[in-house]
Write a structure and sequence with these properties.
With 465 residues, this protein is an alpha+beta fold. The chain has 14 helices and 18 strands.
Length: 465
């Protein structure tokens, strides 16, 4: 009998991510299908977690992955291909000569087979492989899609799969994450929960926690139904579109230089590249709005490095690093801003606000309080709240995942992300690409017209002194 272990998922994996599927898409000139399939199987064979299947463990009251520690894994990779005698329109790819541009997302069916589920319950019922690859060969390019359950892998997890695949394709060594019958992230969270409160009174100690309570709620049936209706309204009535802004290396350097110069003049310390990108895209997307609704922005913050740096008692956990495959994150909210407030602020001022909002979330006390609140008050199931006169936004800097760093042996033209079964609106994700950045969002067409103008301004040549 094949030796197996049961790997439980953490409370973060099951807060709402267990109902979501993700597809990562790469557009390349061409790819050797047999070589790609063989390399993917080798990755799964070495990283045995990916050879497992999802199941519900009643005795643990938790979703788990049942992992075979030996045996052939060929059937634990979903691999489908198709050919179409059409050309992919240039509007779907990055122009190699452009310094900045807005790109339309191509159709999902080029990257994802229709039989792939999204939620963990469907993965468990069908025993679908954790990694499914769908390839569509077109006349002028090839679309490669990697589909997986968000409850098992996040941007870092799929990024590590891409890292392993790149190594296998190009004959380089790599280290697969170790497998354990305990969930390291959950052990850390349990340790924090059992520790004395690090905030004397979280409700008074940080305004950020108050903003968090305002922007998130329990994922009850009625609350989820209300959210689905709202998303449907945005997609059907307002025609929400998913596009990506490509900012090339020179444009990014210009934006960085100008913003940091103003931050220095304001005497506000320093801001990161992530702060500046968040500020620029939020300003660009909302500059044309005429209403004065409040914008409630939740940013996603990785807790991996912070756990090691700020809580010595857990430094011995071997996988709390960039190889950890669990969803290791927390939310940090910005204070609610009216659109008119945001319009009056410069990119530098919004970047400063973003940076200052991150500070309480970069403390271990925040992680302790956040997880205690979501587990006890929201009963471990969370979704963005909907309030009249407010817009909920989600910002996620996914650069740590390195999902663009793979050499297929031919030129890459684009990187895309899909969330299934539903693409939330007002969601922004950032990834690196060819020395620059891709900023993907789902928003109304009018907002994309405003972004196009902002991109045109970035493309203008600098005046000579």
């Amino acid at each position: 009998m094949t030796q197996q272990i049961l790997v439980p998922l953490s409370q973060l994996d099951q807060s709402y991510l267990h109902e979501i599927g993700i597809t990562l898409g790469h557009v390349v000139r061409s790819v050797d299908l047999a070589k790609l399939r063989a390399a993917s199987i080798r990755v799964i064979d070495k990283w045995r977690l990916l050879a497992g299947h999802v199941e519900w463990a009643q005795h643990l009251s938790s979703w788990c992955v049942r992992v075979p520690l030996q045996g052939d894994v060929t059937n634990r990779l979903g691999f489908t291909t198709t050919k179409l005698k059409i050309r992919l329109d240039p509007c779907f790819v990055v122009n190699e000569h452009a310094s900045a541009q807005v790109i339309t997302r191509p159709p999902l069916n080029l990257f994802r087979a229709p039989s792939i589920p999204s939620d963990l319950q469907s993965y468990a019922t069908s025993k679908t492989p954790i990694i499914s690859i769908h390839i569509t060969e077109l006349l002028n390019c090839t679309c490669i899609g990697f589909s997986f359950p968000h409850g098992v892998l996040d941007a870092v997890g799929i990024g590590h799969f891409i890292h392993g695949l790149d190594a296998e394709l190009n004959g380089r060594p790599w280290d697969a994450p170790a497998i354990s019958s305990t969930n390291i992230v959950q052990e850390v969270l349990d340790t924090l929960e059992a520790a004395p409160p690090m905030y004397d009174d979280i409700h008074r100690e940080t305004a950020a926690f108050s903003a968090l309570k305002r922007s998130m709620e329990h994922a009850s049936f009625l609350n989820k139904l209300a959210m689905l209706r709202h998303v449907a309204y945005e997609h059907i009535w307002h025609g929400v579109e998913t596009r990506t802004v490509y900012l090339g290396e020179k444009v990014v350097a210009k934006l960085l230089r100008e913003t940091r110069s103003e931050v220095e003049r304001l005497g506000a310390g320093s801001v990161s590249m992530g702060d500046i990108l968040a500020a620029w895209i939020l300003k660009a997307l909302t500059v044309g709005d005429t209403d004065d609704d409040l914008i409630c922005i939740n940013s996603i913050y990785s807790i991996r490095a912070m756990l090691q740096e700020n809580y010595p008692a857990i430094k011995d956990y071997p996988l709390i690093n960039d190889k950890e495959i669990d969803n290791g994150f927390t939310n940090y909210p910005l204070p609610p801003l009216s659109k008119q407030q945001l319009a009056r602020m410069s990119v530098a001022e919004v970047a400063i606000l973003h940076n200052n909002s991150l500070k309480p979330a970069s403390e271990i006390a925040w992680v302790q309080a956040y997880n205690k609140y979501t587990k006890k008050t929201l009963r471990g199931r969370i979704i963005p709240s909907l309030r009249k006169g407010e817009e909920g936004w989600l910002y996620s800097n996914q650069v740590i995942g390195r999902i663009d760093r793979i050499d297929y042996g031919s030129k890459m033209f684009g990187v895309w992300i899909w969330f299934t079964p539903l693409q939330p609106h007002n969601q922004v994700g950032v990834n690196k690409f060819k020395g620059g950045f891709l900023i993907q969002s789902s928003n109304r067409p009018a907002r994309w017209r405003a972004v196009a103008k902002a991109v045109e301004e970035l493309n203008l040549p600098q005046p000579r002194l």
